From TrEMBL:
<keyword id="KW-0378">Hydrolase</keyword>
<dbReference type="GO" id="GO:0000724">
    <property type="term" value="P:double-strand break repair via homologous recombination"/>
</dbReference>
<dbReference type="InterPro" id="IPR011545">
    <property type="entry name" value="DEAD/DEAH_box_helicase_dom"/>
</dbReference>
<dbReference type="Pfam" id="PF00270">
    <property type="entry name" value="DEAD"/>
</dbReference>
<feature type="domain" description="Helicase ATP-binding">
    <location>
        <begin position="42"/>
        <end position="236"/>
    </location>
</feature>
<dbReference type="GO" id="GO:0009378">
    <property type="term" value="F:four-way junction helicase activity"/>
</dbReference>
<dbReference type="GO" id="GO:0043138">
    <property type="term" value="F:3'-5' DNA helicase activity"/>
</dbReference>
<dbReference type="GO" id="GO:0005524">
    <property type="term" value="F:ATP binding"/>
</dbReference>
<dbReference type="GO" id="GO:0005694">
    <property type="term" value="C:chromosome"/>
</dbReference>
<dbReference type="InterPro" id="IPR014001">
    <property type="entry name" value="Helicase_ATP-bd"/>
</dbReference>
<dbReference type="Pfam" id="PF00271">
    <property type="entry name" value="Helicase_C"/>
</dbReference>
<protein>
    <recommendedName>
        <fullName>DNA 3'-5' helicase</fullName>
        <ecNumber>5.6.2.4</ecNumber>
    </recommendedName>
</protein>
<keyword id="KW-0413">Isomerase</keyword>
<dbReference type="GO" id="GO:0005737">
    <property type="term" value="C:cytoplasm"/>
</dbReference>
<comment type="similarity">
    <text>Belongs to the helicase family. RecQ subfamily.</text>
</comment>
<dbReference type="GO" id="GO:0016787">
    <property type="term" value="F:hydrolase activity"/>
</dbReference>
<keyword id="KW-0238">DNA-binding</keyword>
Length: 380
């Protein structure tokens, strides 16, 4: 507990800070005590300021969102959190529901279209009653028209004034996607143009609603675009370094090229597979994820080759396999020790026990490099 800092606060803010500390401690069943930057960021949003949180991957930005929901005593209050990836939605829903005991659901194009489900969980427009969920984690595209020109169900709700009254705040996790995915860059169209249109949602919602962006990667030119898209001029910034004392950066010169598979032998502990550290390798090419995984598997003793110790992961694989591979790598009891993945696993997804993170080749940007590197040693 940051007592010295707490004692410098005005009494009203000190009380608020202690409330956040107690909520975080009891909601996590004693496993988490909010740190200073988390309390500062939560207070800014609680006081209805637009705010930007820039903190390294794995630093605890999710707890900030949880604290604000827990402090709101209204059973009808609703928090919207915008995320870029379905995989990230799955892990975040599990975190909020199981760890913080906050009723949370994901809204994406896989969500049931059943009226009863929406009326019970989200909002009933006919009876004007709130659903049971207190937290909606949504993909950006659900806030706009579909490719066929139809309004999504959530889009219709967001335009309804009765639903708007329930919204306490809007969070945008991985807010750097506004720039990297929502803007035209290098002569190419936006990869996900909905991210560049969030100012339209900001204009629809009441001005009283604070918006908070959270990211690990926000150089000045990215922050400028984010500000123009979603923030008022008086927004605040809470900043924490992306470096952590338990990580070391290193470069390794490959022989021949990235497709020479023997370059990756150093990450496999063949002499003692039982002590194999968890290694996460990122590749730009999906074909290379498979080739490296098969090559490293071939180096294992024959009796271990079908045990799933080495797996590969990319977006073209079946949802069932992706869930299996992710769980086998992230679970404490999972058998997978080396995961060869594409960038789908680099953004925001929680890897709590990775010893070594490898980026094969030069990263396309510092932002991408920090996202990849932030997967390491998140339990330390």
């Amino acid at each position: 507990v940051p007592y010295l800092w707490l004692n410098t606060l005005p009494i009203s803010r000190r009380i608020l800070a202690y409330r956040f500390i107690l909520l975080g401690y009891y909601a996590s069943r004693g496993s988490q005590v909010p740190r200073r930057f988390q309390i500062e960021a939560a207070m800014e949003s609680y006081e209805d300021h637009d705010s930007l949180v820039i903190a390294g991957t794995g630093s605890g930005k999710t707890l900030i969102i949880a604290l604000l929901i827990l402090l709101n005593g209204s059973p009808d209050g609703l928090t919207l959190t915008i995320l870029p990836l379905k995989r990230l939605q799955i892990t975040q829903v599990a975190t909020f529901c199981l760890h913080y005991r906050i009723n949370t659901i994901a809204i994406n194009d896989d969500m049931p279209h059943d009226d009863n489900y929406w009326n019970m969980m989200v909002h009933n427009l006919t009876t004007r009653t709130a659903g049971t969920a207190r937290h909606l984690i949504i993909t950006t595209e659900q806030l706009f028209k579909s490719k066929t020109g139809h309004l999504s169900r959530l889009c219709r709700l967001v335009c309804d004034t009765r639903f708007q009254k329930r919204i306490d705040r809007v969070n945008i996790d991985e807010v750097h996607f506004i720039y990297f995915a929502g803007m035209k860059r290098h002569g190419l169209d936006a990869f996900r143009p909905a991210w560049g249109c969030l100012k339209e949602i900001k204009a629809i919602l009441p001005s009283r609603i604070p918006w908070q962006g959270l990211t690990a990667t926000c150089p000045p030119h990215v922050e400028c675009v984010i500000k123009q898209s979603i923030f008022r001029d008086d927004y605040s910034v809470t900043r924490l370094t992306s470096n952590r004392p338990n990580t070391i950066y290193a470069t390794h010169k490959v022989v021949g090229g990235l497709d020479v598979l023997d370059n990756y032998n150093c990450f496999l502990r063949r002499s003692d597979p039982a002590s194999q550290p968890r290694v996460l390798l990122f590749f730009d090419l999906t074909s290379l994820t498979r080739r490296v995984a098969l090559h490293l598997t071939s180096l294992l003793p024959i009796e271990l080759r079908d045990k799933g110790i080495i797996l590969h992961y990319h977006s073209l694989m079946s949802p069932e396999y992706l869930v299996h591979a992710h769980e086998q790598f992230t679970s404490k009891t999972g058998k997978c020790r080396i995961l060869c993945a594409t960038s789908a696993e680099s953004t925001g997804v929680d890897f709590p026990d990775v010893d070594i993170v490898v980026k094969a080749g030069l990263p396309e940007s510092l932002a991408y490099s920090l996202q990849c590197g932030g997967r390491a040693l998140r339990w330390e």
